Queue: 2 jobs
Job 1
Amino acid sequence: MKTIDGQLFVENIPVIELAKEYGSPLFIYSSKEIENNFLNYKNEIRDKDLVCYAVKANSNIHILKLLSHLGSGFDVVSGNELQRCLLAGADRKKIVFSGVAKSHEEIKLAIESDILSINIESVGEFQRIAAIAKELNKTVNCALRINPDIKIGSHKYIETGSKTSKFGLDKESVSKISELSKSNEHINIKAVACHIGSQISDENLILKSLIYIKEIADQLKGEGHELNFLDIGGGLGIQYKDEEKGDPKILISEVKTLLKETDYQVIVEPGRSIVGTSGILLTKVEYIKEAGEKKFAIIDAGMNDLIRPSLYEAWHKVREVEEGDVESETYDLAGPVCETGDILARDRSLKIQPNDYLVFMDVGAYGSVMSSNYNSRLKPAELLVTKDVAKVIKRKENFEDLIALES
Ligand code: LLP
């Protein structure tokens, strides 16, 4: 994203041209930005290590294809995310499957797809995987996802590593599974994993979790398991406003130092830090409205398109697509959804009038994937821009799509 003479561009295309051709709301991504962000990790890791992009951040098949071509592996949390990866041509030996509630069908699909690892999150899940593997007469490579009880200080909804969260195993469950798997020919414990949360700016928190899981991995090795991988999860943050962003270079170089004397391979599962800064959400100002001392810009994108502000009070930068010649005023940006919480930004100083276009910045991660049809609103189209070509990677929904499953 760059501005030239007051005009906003995605790669070589002025956003106003895309607005005129495709309308709004509209998600637009830059493939160069995704590539650069991916390479920040890929260029740092050793040949034997893996970047497994967290598909949940943005699961569009075209983005998965792009990342797969760059050599990325994938972290999935559902059978359908796994199927997306397979459809995108992903290397199945670079796919890890996380998540606390894997169903019978999902585990079966994962085993039959021969992926790198299923990350176990409970004793019950271990037993379920073992039973299905036996049925299929297969041996499955698994990881133990540990809950290291580390708080990260981001929004409470995106902390995952504290003791009372639903994610990961405590030490007791690890011992239990270690014992059970030693005598089970259908399960190999190949990795220890953790993911302590998201939007982390301090790399040291992730390193702390690495030290924690390495100790467990060493112990499991001592108990006879042939462990190869340490999976440190994702979580590095980006800069939405003035917070510090996490630095993949610092993280990976510290990881390499910590593991210098060992032969562990590393898996890292970044989502936000790969796609977050690559995407914008284009929206149009429908009306300007005054309410007491407040001034609203009523826009055509709502909390159904971008739920992060309503759900986490998240702050996304807003920019004019073209600099108008009106006075700058302070606005709250309100969407069309019938909820008081449908405010996508507050107190923003903007030069706008009705029919002007705005963009929300940094919505490439957890933007379109968290959108819904609330109020029977149609989900926006998505474009992927590469230099001066814009490709529709998801068409806009229509009314028939909306009611297709109800007839
Ligand atoms: N690995 C696992 C097991 C995860 O659960 C997640 C994210 C990631 C990797 C990727 O984390 P990242 O690098 O993107 O921080 N919807 C929230 C974020 C939820 C993150 C869930 N897990 C948001 O909009 O901020």
Job 2
Amino acid sequence: MALSPLFAVPLAAYEVPVVGVGFDQSTVTVLGVVAIAALIGLSAFFSSSEIAMFNLPKHRLERMIEDDIPGASLVKGLKDDPHRLLVTILVGNNVVNIAMSSIATAILSIHFGGLAGVLLATFGITALVLLFGESVPKSYAVENTEAWSIRIARPLKATEYLLFPLIVLFDYLTRQINKLIGSTGPIESPYVTRDEIQEMIESGEREGVLEEEEHEMLTRIFRFNNTIVKEVMTPRLDMTAVPKDAAIDEAIETCIQSGHARIPVYEGSLDNVQGVVHIRDLVRDLNYGEADDGELELADLIQPTLHVPESKNVDELLTEMRENRMHMAIVIDEFGTTEGLVTMEDMIEEIIGEILEGGEEQPIEEIDDDTVLVRGEVNIEDVNEALDIDLPEGQEFETIAGFIFNRAGRLVEEGEEITYDGVRITVEDVENTRIMMARLTKLEAAEGSTEEPDSEPARVEPDENDE
Ligand code: ADP
């Protein structure tokens, strides 16, 4: 009942064009419908432009320019100022959408009267814009990003000239507002960040786009630039080296015994490494060298090597070693003392995983789901990964032996145990002062609840014979 007066006027108005009296009104209606159709086309153009321009990755655009695709440089010109581009598209899109709804309201009001006209125009135009001005063109643009960005580049540039005053004004105003609210606007940030790539790798594996091995290798590549030499080096204790005054056949013997092709040569002590000799040169010179006039010396075969601090990043060192064509570098600490050596293989293993030769044992041996046997020199990061635990990383120790030693605060003996954050660490093998092997067991949740909290120092529990 309340609605009837509302429809009384429209019905009367509707009859006028039907009986052909209001010719002017029907002309207006036809013109209005044509205008709405044209505006929907424009709305589709702007919406699809937004998707095509902002979904086109930089690298693909650069490729298009390299391939001399006509129009690609115009696309680049527009994308070079993403803020201006977005304002152009938004101003254009809003002008056409609002014009469309105004025209529709005017026409529908003629036929259906004020309020009904407004309601019909609101819902009708919303439906039309959503379908034909937004979703259809946007879906098309997503699938045809490259081709569509080329097609719309020229008309978009023309729009920029046509709406120039409006665009300049809104460009200025939005920049000011962004400044006020402390935002630079997401469109001005790099098109892809490191974190985004890492997230993509994670979800890539979850979705099955990446194999597990590919995922692991990509993850390691991202970790690589945070890795320092100390984490990958062979420590001083395991270094095989020869003194400079050794005979060549002695050096060959040392290489053979140790199974290494390159050995550092030192003068006096290991803290004074002069360079490196390769077994190939030693053998070649022993057998085919010009040894007529006297003894050939080891010093003649020494190749220079790099001395690097233990805190150096491995990605930098890898580049340097490749540039200098060196396979081995000597690692020194801040006092100039030799700490160990590092080879290309040590660094490449960080990306592709452990490379084991001949009789080499696995550094981490899985006993069961909750227990592993770990060699002392294994990095804590790798132990954490293997058991899915959380021992502290990035502190003054790198290896599991370093961790045990640090927690104990003194030398430990075989059989001693540490409990830390739900993990029981048992020292399995000690040679002299060095922890060679440890067993790590993830404690059951029930058992874990009785262990000491994180903040307390871990207790070293000696076995019966100890101390
Ligand atoms: P090689 O095949 O001669 O052993 P790689 O570069 O393949 O040399 O290194 C394999 C592993 O052996 C690496 O962990 C590296 O640190 C270590 N290594 C290489 N040469 C020596 C050496 N002279 N003394 C001790 N360890 C070495």
